[in-house]
Amino acid sequence: MSDAPGILTHAAVMTGRSLRISRRNIDAVITSMMLPVMLMLIFVYFFGGAIDTGTAYDSYVMYVVPGVLLLCAGFGSATTAVAVSEDMKGGIIDRFRSLDVGGTPVLAGHVAASTVRNLVSTTLVFGVALLIGFRPAASLGGWIAALGVLLAYIVALSWISAAIGLLARTPEAAGGFTFFMSFLPYPSSAFVPVDSMPGWLHGFADHQPVTPAIEALRGLLLAQPVGNAPWVALAWAAGILTVAVGLSGALFKVRTA
Questions:
Q1: Are the beta carbons of 40 and 64 closer than 8 angstroms?
Q2: 12, 79, 169, 209: most buried by Cβ count inside 10 Å?
Q3: Cα–Cα dist 73/117, whole Å
Q4: pTM of the predicted model, to two decimals?
Q5: Which H, E and C letters describe 95-145, residue by residue?
């Protein structure tokens, strides 16, 4: 317990460092922020008129925005894997260890910085969504619950990205590995209902971690029935986070042995 204040202080310093690095890597930050916005505009204006969601939503933008918010979290967390891999490759970790900075503060700093970047990106996406016709109807409790689900996924995806950054041997490989996380919203209910997909895909689309999060966000933001979707979504996020934290700790020890 006596080490807790030191770990928190180191983590805060590492968070500030990661955010300063992001400011110098402005092109990557802009890309991770603008890509979800561009995809949302493409789906709404290019494909929206041809997609029948089979729901009561009066416009496609009302259906698609919750999925884009999860897509945004995936894109934003991908930069964490690259940043961790660059640290491992550049030798800076050895300097941190000589200053008695452990692996937990270093990784927590990357995750906290990723969370900040994701929240900024999510705010941008949400602002554009409001401009193009998204009209949420959530109560105060609904807003709080939706933010909780989204934040849980941002943190969980950022930690698993940190683990991928430790696993990959180069930053380029780290960026490639995170493509899978960015791909997950597509075989889900993000852009079309699962029932409209081929039958062989239903099992995966219904039981992968992104679908309950999207259904929870959609129901909470639009004041629609959500059933147990928020709890399933949080259970997935907690499971991913637990595995990611344990895996990243073990990988950090192996990579710095």
A1: yes
A2: 79
A3: 9
A4: 0.88
A5: HHHHCCCCHHHHHHHHHHHHHHHHHHHHHHHHHHHHHCCCCCCCCHHHHHH
